[in-house]
Amino acid sequence: MTDTIFALATAPGRSAVAVVRVSGPATLSTVKALCGSAPSPRLAALRTLRHEGVALDEALVLRFEGPASYTGEDSAEFHVHGGRAVVESLLSALSDLGLRLAEPGEFTRRAFENGKLDLAQAEGVADLIDAETEAQRRQALGQLGGALSQRYDRWRDLLVQSQAMLEAAVDFPDEDLPEAVAERARPALRTLKAELDLALADVARGRRVRDGFRIALIGAPNAGKSTLLNGLTEREAAIVTDTPGTTRDVIEVPLVLGGYKVLLADTAGIRDTSDAIEAEGVRRARAWAEDADLRLWVVDGFHVKHRVELEDAVRPGDWLVLNKVDIAQTLTLDEAERWARGEGLEVVRLSARSASALDDLRSRLAAAVADALSGADFPAATCLRHAERLREAQSYLARALSDAGLEVELAAEDVRLAARALEKITGRVDPEDVLGRVFSTFCIGK
Ligand code: GDP
């Protein structure tokens, strides 16, 4: 029999109200034991909670009868005063009554197991709780609402239909040439393959929304990268000095731009060095910059002598930040800007010490991030787990398409495997360890 579980669902610590949740078969008897009598389902009732003759608190009590509850089981919520002692006394009373403290994500896991939501939606719940930006919130809510799952399910249904067609072609070869029947399954599979290709191309966008758009500040020592990073984030994250080579590693600072999460990194000055530790810093800086979504080359506008190094390294779409305009010569800046535009770079002239220039740069960056991450109107797959399974489905489908004209049986098997890959995303089929991994990322009480 299933245990009845309990947990504090709100953040621990002192607060106006704290919510303690209970779910499982012993819910009703637990509510009766604490309240004397159980309130009607779905009606909030004010009750004095008592345990062993001692009053614990005046609480608002809500009871749900399964399957019409979050977990699909009988469950209840106690809204108590949010003092530590109150919460402690209720939790220990529940433990005395034979209930067990929930594991992380166990309420949602039960909801999943009772068919209240699928695995992709459950991940949406976790993402919504973790959401810090407007874009993360929208994305997680879409996923929780099932928009993503509906798309996966639709694809899976199409695959199952095509599989049936292909198998029919094998089983009744007399009626028609199997190849000719199989040929009829092809257009649908081709359309599906195109949709999968698009979704995979969009995975990077979804992940950037969730994990952060990466902007690298690159440039020679003393160009002003640390000053710029501290200015943009309004924090003292990076050390600013006039000794070249102070930033020894990659300093990554999260910030929100235009409603999107951004990771801004100050990389160790990219240069040749004989110092081993510094060389490692340079290596990491290169790797971070290589992987960044946007690269800002910061140059000391006073002596733009590092242009030679830049010439091999810049890529169209990178930005050139001509810093220290307060002390630089206009002619030098004009010349650098002309060169940069010829290379396909965006150019920003500023002084990293000027607050208004930093505001302007922040808005330009926000627009660039929004441009890169908004767009496609369907929800993007957000995590690696989805991307891996989508890739798997894509490759089976590609093989099925190349086989379909030749070996109908093989094609049918590939289509079946593609459908199975998609089923794994929504958790229709999946081994225990995957479920364990997904739910262990939750907090207790969810
Ligand atoms: P990093 O090595 O690229 O991180 O460079 P820092 O941010 O440490 O800056 C190197 C030096 O340049 C420091 O002394 C900064 O105060 C100075 N600096 C940075 N930005 C400006 C600027 O816009 N104007 C002037 N005049 N000095 C700046």
From TrEMBL:
Signal peptide: none annotated. Binds 1 potassium ion per subunit. Its EC number is 3.6.-.-. Its cofactor is K(+). Residues 212-370 form the TrmE-type G domain. Mg(2+) binds at S226, T247. Gene3D superfamilies: P-loop containing nucleotide triphosphate hydrolases (3.40.50.300), Probable tRNA modification gtpase trme, domain 1 (3.30.1360.120), tRNA modification GTPase MnmE domain 2 (1.20.120.430). (6S)-5-formyl-5,6,7,8-tetrahydrofolate binds at R21, E77, K116, K446. It is found in: Cytoplasm. GO terms for biological process: tRNA methylation; tRNA wobble uridine modification. GTP binds at residues 222-227, 241-247, 266-269, 351-353. It comes from the Bacteria. Keywords: Cytoplasm, GTP-binding, Hydrolase, Magnesium, Metal-binding, Nucleotide-binding, Potassium, tRNA processing. One of its GO terms (molecular function) is GTP binding. Homodimer. Heterotetramer of two MnmE and two MnmG subunits. NCBIfam families: mnmE_trmE_thdF, PRK05291.1-3, small_GTP. Belongs to the TRAFAC class TrmE-Era-EngA-EngB-Septin-like GTPase superfamily. TrmE GTPase family. Exhibits a very high intrinsic GTPase hydrolysis rate. Involved in the addition of a carboxymethylaminomethyl (cmnm) group at the wobble position (U34) of certain tRNAs, forming tRNA-cmnm(5)s(2)U34. This is tRNA modification GTPase MnmE. It comes from Caulobacter vibrioides OR37.
